[in-house]
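Hi R.,

Here's the chain you asked about this morning:
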Amino acid sequence: MASPVATTSRAVLGSGLRASRQRSSDAGRLFTTSTPNRNDSLWTITPSSSSSSSSAGAAAASSAAAAPPPPPAVDLKAAFAAARAAPASAQDGASPASPAPAPSHIEVDPKLAQAERRRMSRTMMDQLATLGSTQTRASSFRPHKMRLNPVTAQELTLNHLVASTAQMGHSLSSLKAANQPFIYGTRHDVAIFDLERATLPALRRAAHVVREVAERDGVILFVGTRPGQQASVLQACKRLGSNGFHVTAERWMPGVITNAPKLLAPAILASMGDADEATASIGSNKLATQHYQPDVLVILNPIENAFAIREATQANIPTIAITDSDVDPRSVTYAIPANDDSLRTVELVVGVLSKAGEEGIRSRKKKLDQAEKVARRMARRLNNARGPAGEESTNFDPRTRRASMADELKRYRKQLDDNEEAAA
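And here is the predicted structure, written out as tokens:
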């Protein structure tokens, strides 16, 4: 026997379901949609004509009173016809003024756009530098800047060498045995140079040699006969001025060093257009007895310039060369183990060496200025020691004058030694 609570629950649920069904049926009988014919243009919502019981009628009446009135009927055909006729009627009258067409693109000054791009790039690089990035503007290799503004030997880093592909050598089949100490390893049967322990110290040592030669007013001869090396060599010679010369022809002419008087004398005499025959004959005799030799040779492609290395060795002239893995480094005085087939590497090496020579020229000029100051000071003291008519004064002692000059020279030599020690 069921409990009273269960019986009451079933009765409540049953009455609720019957009430919900009654409400849904009343709402369905209240509003029905009439199906229009094909020719009818009206979609109307009309109240249902069916009758219900008295209780359902009362509920429907109360719902109809509470519901909002139905929207007015709309003739769709008439609305479409009016929409089609509207453009025609507008064309009959005065057409309204149409707005000006928008420009397809905005004219921007190219210089301003380029300056804005540079500013954004510089800002981005500065922000990356503050985040601890090791690849900054100061340490990155920029090929378009290396030729006109190369780095010095002190500013040179491994990033510059790696970016210029200086570490790439040739295949192991062409590797010279003397290059084994300079090889870091191999990759895909290609020798890789040790930039940190071989290339970088060798390049800095060669730069120091060029600096000392330029400081002593020596002649530096650049030899580069491969296509593409002429631009960097010309910039280096322009940077060195009267101390830099170059050979950028297709090949080295044998005898330029060992047989210089006969090879170079006609060219020098031909440039002397204002000289007469007598002067030319005397000059030819003088040129035949002179020896035109550079103080150091910088060879960029030693394989094609073997004659130049041989002549420099016979004339006891030091040589600096970029020696690839297929070149014997013992054939030159100062070997720079690097990739001589890369133009970037050649430009980097030539730029570093020319910068070192430029530093030597500035140092020599500074020493000459100091020597001139000392000479003027000594001349002023000698003039003060003489009388007004140019005669020596009564209290002038020649021994004192010689002693003062000797002391001045000693002080000057000591100053030069101190400057050299500070530079070293």
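One quick note: The CA atoms of residues 154 and 204 lie 8 Å apart.

Cheers,
M.
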